[in-house]
Amino acid sequence: MRVVFAGSPEIAVPSLEKVALNFDIVGVLTNPDKVTGRGRKIKFNPVKTKAVELNLNVLQPHSLNSEVRNTIISLKPDILVVFAYGKIFGPKFLSMFPMGGVNVHPSLLPKYRGSSPILSAIINGENETGISIQRINLEMDTGALLNQQFIKLSGNETTESLSSFVSAEGAEIVVKTLKAIESGSINEKEQDHNLATYCTKINKEDGKINWNESAVQIYRMIRAYTPWPKAFTQYKDKSLMILEGSVFNGETDLSGEPGKVLGFDKDNGILIQTGDGILVVKFLQLQSKKANDWKSFINGTQNFIGSVLGGNNE
Question: What would the 3-class secondary structure string for 266-298 be?
Fold first, then answer.
């Protein structure tokens, strides 16, 4: 089976490798190179880096125009496999693949259609999530389901750690699905569109902590926005990133307004009052400074205990 693989970020790399081991990848469709740094150096995305390593044919169009379609037609592909490519495919493009297209989506569709399903599962406190292999439709994330794998969540995952797990598991499930398609044994199930929920693109400002929220919700934020954009607040005139924390379950007589730095627990970390409960902060990073564990941060930051974070009374 001749495959065109489309994807760009790190999460798609294991799927590219696994598909290449089992099928004939005739083309890798990925985003154009970026120019970065003071030296204006060209930087390959992770999928291109791996595709070059595997000696695969790489295509990096800015748009999927007729020239690109003609190039892909010349490759005589059977099927399109997509994982985090970031572009919508039109009818002319999809018509080039006799066996259609399949997409790896890291949620239990129809839940969390859209661009941030892993983060959304964490920030909403889900007990489970999963991986869906779906047919590619003209409307995003609405295709028939070909395969699903459920993933139990412990409540301690970050977007980074869960993405790594989904990346590895997705590679296995997509190959199983492609083999079933090739053999004609695949079973397709239409999504129940009445059960659909949606998630949107994440912006940097989404990581801003509202200390009136509960400690549980802020802890979810910290995990969901790792590695980007990171949960952050304001300390005096600087941004302060909260890199690691937990909900405080110990006993204390300390209390204050939401955002107040109450003190610290020697076995856990810095204690910050929220709208409901106390958050323990273990690692944090002040703007233009290195990340520190909580003890080093307190030792190097005068008058932090007793301050109110978030711009209140600063």
Answer: CCCEEEEECCECEEEEEEEEECCCCCEEHHHHH
Using CA atoms, how far residue 197 sits from 75, 92, 116, in Å, is 37, 28, 12
- Reported as type and span, the H/E element at residue 148 is strand 145-152
Report d(CA 189, CA 192) in Å as an integer.
9
Tell me the CB-side half-sphere exposure of residue 79, using CA atoms within 13 A: 22
Which residue bears the tokens 């791996």? 50
Structural domains of the chain ordered from first start: 2-199 (3.40.50.170), 204-300 (3.10.25.10)
What percent of the chain is predicted at pLDDT more than 70? Answer: 99
CB 234 within 8 A of CB 221: no
Q: What pTM was estimated for this model as a whole?
A: 0.94
Find residue 34's DSSP bridge partners: 43
Cα distances (angstroms) measured from residue 271 to each of 47, 92, 260, 284: 42, 57, 9, 13
Residue 314 has pLDDT above 50, yes or no: no
pLDDT at 278: 98
Q: What pLDDT shows up at residue 313?
A: 38
